[in-house]
Amino acid sequence: MKSIDIDQIDLQLLDALQQDASQSNQSLAERFNISAPTCLRRVRRLRVAGWIEREVAILSTERVGALLTAVIEVSLDRQDAAALDAFEERITPDDAVQQCYRVSPGPDFVLIVTVRDMPGYQALAQRLFTTDANVRNVKAFFSLKRAKFSARVPLPLSPS
């Protein structure tokens, strides 16, 4: 990915796309008072430069059905780079793992997982933690209510 200089319009486009990536190129161009071809070129340039990693649809949990979300702290016995990388490589492909953070201090990892129900969580725990001899401690916190969910990243008010 190449490094690019961004300006205020780029920041505005990024912010608008974070709020709703399904906006048409034409509506974005009109909103920021630029031509449609210029808008398209700017968004493509931001993608190529890695500012936009991907675009996804955020599904309605009410429509999908009752889901169980857990925040899980995982501590390992060995924390050398190979052991940390191995754990990360083993758990990140699992569809139930939505987010994985290597953290310090405290546990080695914090995971955000979503499963259908408690039996689904038990299967996940068996699959990811119980069978791994390097997992020392797992502490799960189960969500009672989702007060906020966002993938939006705060942007600077002006380009640096």
How far apart the termini lie comes to 19 Å
User: What oligomeric state do these chains adopt?
Assistant: single chain
Structural class: alpha+beta
Q: Report the strand count.
A: 4
User: What's the CATH superfamily of the largest domain, by name?
Assistant: Lrp/AsnC effector binding domain/regulation of amino acid metabolism (RAM) domain
Query: Any idea what the radius of gyration is?
Result: 20 Å
Tell me the CATH architecture of the largest domain.
Answer: 2-Layer Sandwich
Succession of helices and strands: HHHHEHEEHE
Discrete helix count: 6
CATH fold assignment of the largest domain? Alpha-Beta Plaits
What's the CATH C level of the largest domain? Alpha Beta
- Strand neighbour order, sheet with most strands: 2-3-1-4
The low-pLDDT segments are none
Instruction: Name the beta content range.
Output: 15-25%
Sheet of most strands: 4 strands, antiparallel
**Quick one: overall form?**
elongated
Number of domains: 2
The chain-level mean pLDDT equals: 93
* Helical proportion, percent range: 25-40%
Structure characterization notes:
With 160 residues, this protein is an alpha+beta fold. It has 2 domains: 8-48, Arc Repressor Mutant, subunit A (Orthogonal Bundle), CATH 1.10.10; 61-142, Alpha-Beta Plaits (2-Layer Sandwich). Helix content is 38%, strand content 19%. It has 6 helices and 4 strands; from the N terminus they run ααααβαββαβ. It has helices spanning 8-19, 25-31, 36-48, 61-64, 81-91, 118-130; strands spanning 68-76, 97-102, 109-115, 135-142. Strands 2-3-1-4 form a 4-stranded antiparallel beta sheet, covered by helices on one side. Strand 2 and strand 3 (109-115) form a beta hairpin. The longest helix is centred in the N-terminal third of the chain and has 13 residues, at 36-48. It is elongated and about 55 Å long. It starts with 7 loop residues before the first helix and ends in an 18-residue tail after the last strand.
